[in-house]
Amino acid sequence: MELRHLRYFVAVAETGSLTIAAEQRLHTSQPSLSRQIRDLEDEVRAELFSRSARGVELTASGKAFLDHARLALAQVDAATEAARRAAQPAKQAFALGFQTGEEITWLPRAMQILRDELPDIDVTVSSS
Question: 0.70 cut: is pTM over it?
Fold first, then answer.
């Protein structure tokens, strides 16, 4: 089973139409989408949709499959996001602390220098 099968299945289930799912959500042809759904049903060994002139409706098997398909796709999205975050180096942090009083004279300039010299750093400012 391929992820696209799950994506196609969810799109058809949510739109209730092979044509609308193909054209508006998946940007593919309706015959190709129908073939992919049939391939998925063959692999699952259950009819997931009942087809009629009014569109498609989930069968009991389709309803049972839908939540699991959504969960699997959500897990894939989470895994992708985790990998992307791991590929980015962690941002360095700079903490600037001071006693309240004269900060108005130097803090704006200090922040400007930090932004100019260290644009990819998180700055935390605190006073006591």
Answer: no
